Amino acid sequence: MSERLAVRKTYKLFIGGAFPRSESGRSYVVSSSKGEFLANASKASRKDAREAVAAARKAFPGWSAATAYNRGQILYRVAEMLEGRRGQFVSELVDADGVGVRKAGELVDAAVDRLVWYAGWSDKIGAIRGSANPVAGPYFNLSSTEPTGVVAVVAPQEAPLLGLVSVIAPVIVTGNTCVVVASERAPLPSITLAEVLATSDLPGGVVNILTGSAAEVAPWLAGHMDVNAVDLTGADAELAVTCEEAAAENLKRVLRPPSVKADWLADPGTERMTAFLETKTVWHPIGT
Amino acid sequence: MVSLESFGLVGDAGAVSTTTAPLAEVAASNSTLRAFLHGLPGVDRVGADARAAMLGTRSIKTTAKKQAIDLAIRMVDLTTLEGADTPGKVKAMCAKAVHPDPTDSSVPSVAAVCVYPDLVATAVQALGSSGVKVASVATAFPSGRSSLEVKVADTVLAVAAGAAEIDMVIDRGAFLAGDYLTVFEQIAAVKAACGSAHLKVILETGELSTYDNVRRASWLAMIAGADFIKTSTGKVSPAATLPVTLVMLEAVRDYLRTAGRKVGVKPAGGIRTTKDAIKYLVLVNETAGPDWLDPDWFRLGASSLLNDLLMQRQKMATGRYAGPDYFTLD
C-alpha cells in the first residue's frame, strides 16, 4: 500500500460565521520563524472588509441586546473550546514564533485564562463604569454603559494568539461586534481561533477575522462610515496616522497603538473594555 | 385567426418574429386569443436562466458605473405600499424623490413615486412642479379580486386625484383558468378609464408559475393597450427576477417589431442593491436595446434600492465606504 498523503487545512477568512475565500482570490505564503513554508493564507481585499463590516453590523443588534450573563457564558465557552485544542495551538505557535513547546504551552494557557478573566467582567463592567449621580433636583440620575457598535481591530503583529485574544475579548464582552485584521506575519493561529469561535455559540458576525495586509485593508475600515471605532494596537506608526486621519471623518473612537511594546502576559486592566463603551445617562423623576 | 406559421424562432430564449396578421383580430373571441397566445413559441427555461445569469456577470466599473448609478436613480419608482402609510410618510418620501441626497445637489430626481390611490392627492401636492410623476396602484391591488366596476372606479379615483401613471394588476385567477378574454377586456376597460394617464400592467409573475405564461401575459397586456408591463406587486415572493424580466424584455422588443408600438418594462420587488440594478440595466441593453435605457421605457420599482444607490454613489465620490446612518430611513 502506498504511503498516505496528509490532508492539509485551507486557511480561509472568517466572515459572518462562515469561512469564505477572499473575494479577490488572492493568497500569500506564510512562513515559519525559520523561513520554512507553512501554508497559504487568504489575502483579504477591501471588499472582504466591506462584507465583514456588513456582517458585524448585522450581528450587532442581537449581540448587544444579549444579557451580560449570556455574553459572559459564551466567552467562557470560547475558553473551554480553546483549552480543548491546546495541542493544536501549541504546535502552531511553535511553528509561527519559534518558541519552545513549554513556552508555547504557557502562552496558550494565558490566552485561555485571559478569556475567562474577560468573561467574568461581562456583568461587572457596569458596576465600575456606571453610576448613580448626585444631582440638585428631585431626580434619580443614572449612568449606564452601552457598547459603541462595530469596532475595527488591527491585531498585534507579535503574539499571534495571546495578543489576538487580548484585543478581541474586551471588545466583544461589552456587546460590540468587530472586524479583526490578524497578524500579517503569523495569521494561522487566528483562523484556528476562528474555528474555536465558530463552535462556541458565538453568533455569526460578532467576530470577523481577515488575514492579509493590514496596510492595505485597515485604512478602508478606518474610513468606513458604518464602523464606529478603531483599535490600532497592531498598526505601525505610519499606518496608525493614516487610519486615524481616515477615522476622523465620522468621529470614530480611536484606540492608539501602545507607546511602549506591549507585554501581553501582564494584567490587562479594564482600559481595553472602557475604550469602546458609551455612557447613557437617564434622569428619572423621584416624585414627591 | 392568426396562423402559427407566421411565427418563427429567432434569437435568445425563443423570440417572435414579425407577423403580418393584424393583432386587433386576435382579441375577437376567447378562442382566437387563446390560439394566438398558445401559438407563441415556448420559452426555453434553462436557456433564459443561463442567459440572465451570464449577463449578470458583466463587470461595470468606474465611469460606466457612475453613469449606471445615475441612470438607475432616474429610473426608480420610489414606492410605499403599506397599510400603515400616512400622509406624513408620503410627504417625506416625495421630498426624498425630488432630492434623494439633500447634501449633494448633483444627484438626479427619481422617475416617480408610487402610492395607493387615497394618497395620490397628497403626493401630487408634495411634488408640485418638480417633474417627478405620481403613480398609483389601482384595480383592487394587490390581489385584483374584485368586479370590473370596482376596478374602473378605483382607476378613475386615482386619475381624478392627479395620478399620471396607473399600475393595475391583472386577474391572475382568470388568466390561469384560461379566460384570457376577461383579462383582456379588463385591461382595455382600465386603459379607457386612464385617459391620458400611462397604464402599467402588473403581471405578478410570481403567481404565473411558468415563463411561457409570463410571455403570454406580456403579449396579452400589450395587445390590450398597456404602456408598460410590470413584473410584480412586491407582495408575492418571488417578485422580479432577471430571467422573468428577460422574457418580458424580449416580448416588448418583439411587440415593437410586430405591432410598431413601443412598450416599457418595470421590474418591481426584490431589487435591493446597486449590483442588482446594474444587472437589470445590462439585461435591458442586451435584450431590448439601448433605446429602452431611459426612464420613459424602463423603471425599477423599489424602496430600499435608492439608499444603496446613494451609498454607492457617495462611495465613488468620496472614496470611502458609506454607512446607512447617513441616509434617511424608509
From TrEMBL, chain A:
A Gene Ontology molecular-function term? oxidoreductase activity
Could you list this entry's UniProt keywords, alphabetically sorted: Oxidoreductase
All copies of the Aldehyde dehydrogenase domain together span 23-255
Protein name in UniProt: Aldehyde dehydrogenase
